[in-house]
Structure formats: structure tokens, C-alpha cells
Amino acid sequence: MSLQAHAEERLDALLHALADATRRRLLRRLAGGPAAVGELARPIAMTRVAVSKHLRVLEAAGLITRTVTGRVHRCALSDGAPRELEAWLREYRDFWDAQLQSLARYAERGTAPRRRERAR
Amino acid sequence: MSLQAHAEERLDALLHALADATRRRLLRRLAGGPAAVGELARPIAMTRVAVSKHLRVLEAAGLITRTVTGRVHRCALSDGAPRELEAWLREYRDFWDAQLQSLARYAERGTAPRRRERAR
DNA sequence: TTAATATGATACCAGATGGTTTCCTATCAA
DNA sequence: TTGATAGGAAACCATCTGGTATCATATTAA
Q1: In what helix (H) or strand (E) does residue A86 lie, and over which residues does it extend?
Q2: In this predicted structure, what is the pLDDT of residue B113?
Q3: Most buried residue, A27, A74, A102, B52, by CB count within 10 Å?
Q4: CA-CA distance, B24 to B48, in Å (whole number)?
Q5: Count of CB atoms situated within 10 Å of the CB of B32
Q6: Are the beta carbons of B17 and B63 closer than 8 angstroms?
Q7: Contact list, A31 vs chain B (CB under 8 Å)
């Protein structure tokens, strides 16, 4: 019926991590491929240290992963991340019906091309 | 291609409002129908004032609406709320493909018709 | 009119957050 | 070895956050 306390906390972390424009920008950048911390920090009007902090938030939320090779920390999106978000959205389906439906319409058109899914 | 600054801010507010277990609990409660502030506060181990603050956060994020009749403030879910969230999810489709697909599968089964309840 | 009720407003607090600067360490390259 | 580079660690600061207690106000009921 409801998510356990642990999942609630993970959901807190996930949503909080997403509720920041800089962090979303970092995710958007990483959507184009993995990058080192310095690479990620360079185009942002902010100290490398601050960016590093944001990255740690994203990492703690399970949104990105980090592999250290030598002195370079390479960050990448962790693809399994939004599970909790999805689970939570599912729980709220009753009052988000409309939104989920339009999301579904989009998803059918936009992301499931190989299945040749024909709806409606 | 990208959301304007204003929409970014609204998205910040929306996600931040959702990133709190108490506020999600309030939304869950409101999903069962509108309620007055006191009604919402009663079952929560927290001062009425604190609950009122949470409600104001939800209101500012556009997630709920409030109608004052007499001395009673009745809160209700605002159904158009998750538009920005949806738009944002759409923008991230490239790396959330898998999640959106399973969400779509869910939505096809679960919300399109008023059919059977298949919780799982 | 008086008292109880629903709620907001204000002031206050401790702790978290989001930045900064400075320094340290490890690694790579000359 | 020496120096530059990638990055973390720690200290610090201003502001935000999520609570609290208290008071004010409007409305309803007796």
C-alpha cells in the first residue's frame, strides 16, 4: 500500500537532488555522456568545489555514478536511478491520471519505437 | 528545447515541495478529497502551525488550492499541477527511456480505463 | 455579548544548505 | 625530482528550513 520508510527517505533524496537547477544542468550535461568533475565544473559560474558538492548530492541520490581512474573522477548517469520516482508516481496515479495518460501517450510515441506499439 | 528560467524556478518549487515526506503525506490525504487545515493537521505529530507552513509550500508550488469560507480554509489538490514535472520528464527522455517505458506500460494497464485495480 | 474555534502572523531557534577560501594528497609528465 | 593538475577535506559564513511558542483576528455558537 505504501512505500516503506527506507524508500521514503530515498525518495526524499531523489526529489531533493532534482530540485536544483544546477544539479539538473549537470544531469543534462551527463545525458550527453560521462565527464570528469573538472569538465563538468568548467562551464558553470561556480567554484569547482561547489560543483563537486552538487555531484556528491547526485551521487548520494543514486542519480550518477563515479569511477576513479588515476586522478580523474569520471561521472556518469546511473540508469536505474529513477525507480523510486516511478514507483511514487504510480502510487499517485489516482489523482494524476490525466498527467500519466499524457505521459503515456508521449512515451508510446517518443521512446518505444522498436516495439511498434500501436495505441489508440 | 529547454525550459525558460521562469519554468526552471517553478520546477524548483515543484520538486522541492514534493521532496518532503510530510508534504507527500498531505497530498496523499488530499487525494482522498479536500480537507480543512485543522483536519489535515490532526493526525500528524506536528504543530498545526508547522502543517500550515507545509501547506503554504504546496500552495506556492501550485500543487494545492485553498478556498476560504468563513474561518475555514479548505484545501484541495490542484489537478493541473504536475505539468512542469511532466514536461521536465519529457525533456530527459533520452536517458530515462527505460523508466518511461515501464511507466507507459503501467499507464496503459492501470489508468486508461476505470478498470480493475491491479496493485502490485 | 461572550466564549470557543479556525486560522494566520510573528518572532525565535537549531540545524541544514550552498556557497566561499585555503590547504592537502595523489597522479601524471617533464 | 619537480612541477602542474585533478580532486577531496576542512573551516567558515550567510541564508534557508522546519520546527516551536505566542499572539492576533475573524467567525461561529451559546
Answers
A1: helix A83-91
A2: 31
A3: A27
A4: 16
A5: 10
A6: yes
A7: 92, 94-95
DSSP B56-114: HHHHHTTSEEEEEETTEEEEEE-TTTTHHHHHHHHHTTTTSHHHHHHHHHHHHHHTSSS
Please state, in angstroms and as integers, the Cα–Cα distance from residue A98 to each residue in A39, A88, B114, following that order: 40, 16, 12
Pairing of strands B35-36, B64-69: unpaired
Q: Please identify residues in chain B, positions 76-95, with a C-beta within 7 angstroms of any atom of strand D.
A: none
All three cell numbers of A100, joined, read 500519466
The residue among A56 and A104 whose pLDDT is bigger is A56
What local confidence, expressed as pLDDT, does residue A46 receive? 94
pLDDT, residue B88, reads 57
Please spell the DSSP secondary structure of A6-54, one letter per residue: HHHHHHHHHHHHHS-HHHHHHHHHHHT--EEHHHHHTTSSS-HHHHHHH
Model pLDDT for residues A46-79, shown as the tens digit of each residue: 999 999 999 999 999 989 999 999 999 999 988 7
pLDDT reported for residue B87 = 58
Q: How far is A95 from chain B (nearest CA, A)?
A: 6
Write out B6-28 in H/E/C secondary structure. Answer: HHHHHHHHHHHHHCCHHHHHHHH
Beta-carbon contacts below 8 Å between A and B = 120
Q: Which of A78, A89, A120 is most worth mutating to test chain B (most B CB atoms within 10 A of its CB)?
A: A89
Radius of gyration over every alpha carbon of chain A, rounded to an integer in angstroms: 17
Question: What residues does B69 pair with on adjacent strands?
Answer: B72
pLDDT of residue B107: 39
- What is the pLDDT at residue B90? 55
